[in-house]
Specification:
The complex is a heterodimer. By secondary structure, chain A is mainly α. In chain A, 67% of the residues lie in helices and 2% in strands. Chain A contains 15 helices and four strands. Classes of the chains: A mainly alpha, B alpha/beta.
Chain lengths: 359, 280
């Protein structure tokens, strides 16, 4: 199969996917659970891939993702609330300081940029650390970001610990797919570039990478800032999807959810992260919902089913994955048209290599 | 260009109170193969690490092609702890990171093979091209540097062909037999286009057959790539056969230097390292 046909098939697949989504949107009621799952799945796929760029491809074990999402979500909210609504939203802060509103797309890009800036500053001290220490430091900084955004003195800008709401948002599931897909495609292109090869070298062996002329500090910073940029974008998308946002939701538990998606999907696999994020969202938002509601079959009260039981089942699932599928669904392999073609035609491949993101 | 490619002057490396390398002076001339030998813990690898920027020395300097590339003097806490000589001789402190040293043209291999384990032989070699990139992050990420990318692949292919590693091109680097892995590691170092190659125990763990092949290989790449080679080695056959000169280190101090024959006869070297021959 030539490279050209592969590209054509990929484009056709993406087109077909978008068409299916479009038709679904026209036929199903907009409140259908499927759309919730698809939107949230796309957003989580983006943030999981951005985390995978750090953890899976550069070997930096960072747990700051929720903090950077918060920066993105707030930047988007603060910059796009219509001027007329501001008095209402910032009711405890005399309408707030900022009295303008930007176009949502510009605000999304700025959301990423600000998250990237935060990452750059945090990275200055933090990226000197390695493995577990880096994880603890980034986790700490993510919590500090949350505390700062909730700080009363910054209320005129961030609305303190109150909700940000009334900002514009796109309702169509297509928007989330296109936005997340575009960002993931950018990350994949970065990983397949010479910089991506340098990141993988750093992951495999820092000392050897340095001996090959790769400036460690510089490349780690690039990976950290880019990963945070896309975490910021996904934060903005999340804010949009939820139509209201509050700093309290970006706790470390959220980072763990994303880490869980990355681990289940396979550390170092982009398509793995995408697949597992949809799987995770479908399970947690839809299929396993019944575990949280008390149920009666006739007069029989089904035992165990009550609020919070879903988390118990999840914990068990995680343990099963960690114990028996240590490499996740995909390991470091990628799901690609070429891979399937080669499997079907029985062609032998010497090395498993990545294809594009089939978003 | 000066005749000596590498010059180490009064280098002392002290970790806390422990002196690993004590007032080391040596020179490596163009196109020579120079060996550094000595018992375990003599400070050979530490000397390598000083040259390649892994550690800044406590005192002394290193020049490459006539320019000082590393220099330091006892500072801060070291000032009190330092008990070597020449403490006031050097004033600058020049501590480049290893990647800067590599860019100057000094490449190295490692005592325990450090190949990029999740990558193929070709990818291992391709990484060296990254440091000569002219594209920036955005042009590279958006794949606008097609010509450069093709040139990178071509360079790596060329090197594979010269070193006869084409047959293992797409194999995982760490799945190869040990001797081959060593060869790939040397190939990867050569991909950075060095003028000085540092080999840290290239024959470690090799059987006599592999060692012989390696001896030929080192001699060959010296001629083909116009290299100067500085190596640490324990296999005396290899050292004696291809070295132009040998330095002997014991407890961080240089105890002998000269041609392989001279060193072999030196009584200090025999008692410290080679061992006394029992009379029969």
């Amino acid at each position: 199969m030539s490279k050209k046909t592969e590209t054509i098939i990929n484009v056709l697949l993406i087109g077909a996917l978008l068409l299916v989504l479009f038709i679904l949107e026209k036929t199903l009621p907009s409140t259908h659970m499927l759309f919730t799952v698809l939107k949230k799945g796309a957003i989580y796929a983006l943030v999981a891939v951005s985390m995978n760029l750090l953890n899976g491809f550069t070997g930096l074990f960072s747990l700051g993702q929720a903090g950077f999402m918060l920066v993105g979500a707030y930047t988007y909210g603060v910059l796009t609330i219509p001027v007329a609504e501001r008095a209402n939203v910032y009711m405890y802060f005399d309408g707030g300081l900022i009295q303008f509103a930007l176009h949502p797309i510009i605000a999304i890009i700025l959301a990423g940029a600000l998250a990237g800036l935060f990452a750059y500053l945090i990275g200055l001290p933090v990226l000197r650390l390695k493995s577990d220490y880096l994880a603890i430091a980034t986790l700490g900084f993510a919590e500090i970001i949350r505390a700062i955004f909730q700080w009363d003195k910054l209320g005129p800008i961030t609305n303190g610990s109150n909700l940000l709401r009334s900002y514009p948002s796109y309702k169509s599931v297509l928007f989330y797919f296109v936005a997340a897909g575009l960002c993931i495609a950018l990350i994949v292109m970065l990983i397949n570039s010479t910089y991506g090869r340098a990141f993988k070298a750093i992951r495999d062996d820092e000392v050897a990478a340095e001996a090959m002329g790769i400036n460690l500090a510089h490349h780690k910073r690039i990976a950290f800032v880019i990963s945070s940029f896309f975490a910021g974008v996904s934060g903005a998308l999340l804010a949009m999807y939820q139509t209201s946002v509050q700093a309290a939701m970006f706790k470390s538990a959220m980072t763990y959810e994303i880490l869980l998606i990355v681990v289940i999907g396979g550390i170092g696999s982009i398509t793995g992260s995408c697949i597992s994020s949809f799987l995770f969202i479908i399970l947690s938002e839809w299929l396993l919902r019944f575990l949280d509601t008390e149920t009666y079959i006739g007069d029989f009260h089904v035992p165990l089913l009550r609020s919070g039981f879903r988390k118990v089942v999840f914990a068990v699932l995680i343990m099963i994955v960690v114990l028996f599928f240590r490499k996740g669904i995909m390991g470091t392999r990628e799901f690609s048209v070429r891979g399937i073609y080669n499997k079907l035609t029985g062609k032998k491949k010497k090395a498993e290599k990545g294809g594009g993101a089939n978003e | 260009m000066s005749e000596n490619v590498l010059k180490i002057e009064h280098v002392t490396m002290q970790f806390g109170g422990v002196v690993a390398v004590d007032d080391l002076n040596l020179e490596v001339n163009r196109n020579e193969i120079v060996s550094l030998i000595g018992p375990n813990g003599a400070g050979k690898t530490t000397a390598f690490n000083v040259v390649t920027g892994v550690y800044p020395p406590t005192n002394g300097n290193v020049s490459f092609e006539g320019n000082v590339i590393v220099e330091n003097h006892p500072r801060g806490k070291m000032k009190k702890l330092y008990h070597g000589d020449h403490a006031d001789r050097y004033m600058k402190s020049l501590e480049p990171t290893p990647d800067k040293i590599t860019k100057l043209g000094i490449a190295r291999t490692f005592q325990n093979i450090r190949l990029f384990k999740s990558q193929t032989v070709f990818e291992n070699i391709l990484i060296a091209e990254h440091m000569r990139r002219t594209s920036n992050l955005f042009t590279a990420a958006l794949h606008l540097n097609g010509a450069e990318e093709r040139a990178m692949h071509k360079e790596a292919e060329k090197l594979l062909a010269i070193l006869e590693l084409e047959d293992v091109r797409d194999d995982m680097a760490t799945s190869l037999p040990y001797g081959k892995q060593r060869r790939v590691e040397i190939a990867r170092a050569l991909a950075t286009k060095p003028s000085l190659l540092l080999l840290d125990e290239p024959a470690a763990g090799m059987n006599p057959q592999e060692t012989m092949e390696l001896t030929d290989f080192i001699g060959r790449i010296r001629d083909d790539f116009h290299l100067t080679i500085f190596m640490i080695e324990h296999h005396m056959d290899l050292v004696m056969e291809i070295s132009d000169r040998v330095y002997v280190l014991d407890f961080g101090k240089l105890i002998a230097q000269g041609t392989p024959q001279e060193v072999q006869q030196n009584p200090h070297v025999i008692s410290a390292y080679l061992g006394v021959q029992e009379d029969e």
